[in-house]
Please model this.
Amino acid sequence: MKPIQVGLLGIGTVGRGTFEVLKRNQEEIKRRAGRGIEIAMVADLDTERAKAIVGSQVQVVNDAKAIIVNPEIDIVVELIGGYGIAKELVMSAIDAGKHVVTANKALIAVHGTEIFAAAHKKGVMICFEAAVAGGIPIIKALREGLTANRIEWIAGIINGTTNFILSEMRDKGLPFDVVLKQAQELGYAEADPTFDIEGVDAAHKATILSAIAFGIPVQFNKAYVEGISKLQAQDIRYAEQLGYRIKLLGIAKRVNTAASGAKEIDGVEGVELRVHPCLVPSKRLIANVEGAMNAVMIQADAVGTTLYYGKGAGSEPTASAVIADLVDVTRLMTADPLNRVPHLAFQPDSMSDLAILPMDSVRTSYYLRLVVADETGVLAKITGILAETDISIDAVLQRPGSESKQETDLIILTHSCLEAHMNKALTKIQSLKSVLAPIVRIRKEDLS
Model:
C-alpha cells in the first residue's frame, strides 16, 4: 500500500523533530498505523537549510501553497505558528479536502470554532495534540480516555518557561528579572517572552482544554489572564514557609454560581476559564513539578483525580504528538466522518452553551501581603474591612519589613470568598494611610 504523503509547512525546531523521529521510527510507526507515513514535501522560506535537514529525496519549496494544491499530498502539517498566514493556509488546506495536523495553540484557541466548522463541512480531520503540553497526550486523554466522565475541573502547569522561572526563584531566592535573563540564555524563554510570562500562551492552551472538557466553543477572548512578571521573591519565600508553592496554573472549572451565596450574582451554571499564579499546597504532586516540565490535573466524576506529566515543549517531545496525530489520521481517513472522534470530543450538534463566567463570580481563597505601618490598631482595621465584605480569615502572620523598622509585612490567608468581595475589600484596605505599598494578592487553590 502506498505510504501516506505528508506536506510539512515549516521546518523549524518542531518540524525538524517531526522529520527525524518519523524517519528514525518509521517501521514501528508503520506497524501501528497500518501503512507507511512519509514526508514528501516541505515548505520553508529558508530552502537551503530545509534541504540540509531532509536531503535530496524530499521536495523543498518556498511557497506553502504549492503543498496545498498538490493532489498527491494527503495530510498537511502546519508548524508555522501565529494567527495570520497559518490560518489562511489551514483554511486553504481544508478547502482542498486535506486533513490537517497542527501544533498551533494560538490558532486553535482564537479561530478554532471557524476551523472546526469548515473541517466538519468538508469531512476532514483537524488534529492538534501538539498544541497543548507538548509530548503529553492530554487531548487524547480528554477526548477518548475520559469520555465516560463528567469533567469537573482541570488545573495545569502548561507553560514550561514560567514554571522554570518560578522553580529557580524558589530554589535560589533570585528576583524575577534575573531568572528571566537566565531562562533566555538557556533557551527556555524567547527574546520577547511576553506571551509566556504574561500568561497568554497558557491561556491559549487552557482555552482548548476547556472546550474539550465541557463541549463548549473555544473562547480565548473570555479567559482571565494574569502572568508572573509582578511576582516577588519574598512572596515565594513566604508561601514556602506556609506550606505552599506558587505555580502559574491554567484552570477550567464547571461551577454553579448559585452555590456561591452571593445575592448579586444569578444562580447559573457556567465555566471558569482563568490563568494566574496560585498558591498550591506543597504536598500536592502538581506543586512538585519543577523546571520546564508540564503537568495537568483532571478531576472527573467516575475516575476521580488523574495527573499527566511530561515535557511540554522541545523538538522531539512535540514531534511525538504531531506524529501521533499523523497515525490517527492514517487510521481513520477512510472511515465515515460520522464515526471519527469529534474535534472537541462532543458531537458538533451537541455542543453546550455554558457561558464563560466573569472573574468577579469566581470563588477561591487568597494569600494577601500588605506592607503596613508598625503601629497599634492596623490589624483591627484590616480584619474589620474583610469581615464587612464577608471574607473570613484562615491565618495571619507578621514578618519584619524589608525597608525599615517602622513597617512590617502582614500576611493574611483567607477562606474561600467571592472575587467581587475581595476586590471591594482590597480597594478599601488600600486606601488606609497605614497601608504603605500596593497590596499583593495571589489566589490559592487546594486542588482536592
About this structure: The two ends are 51 Å apart (CA to CA). DSSP finds 15 helices and 18 strands in the chain. Residues 4-137+315-350 form a domain with the Rossmann fold fold (CATH 3.40.50.720).
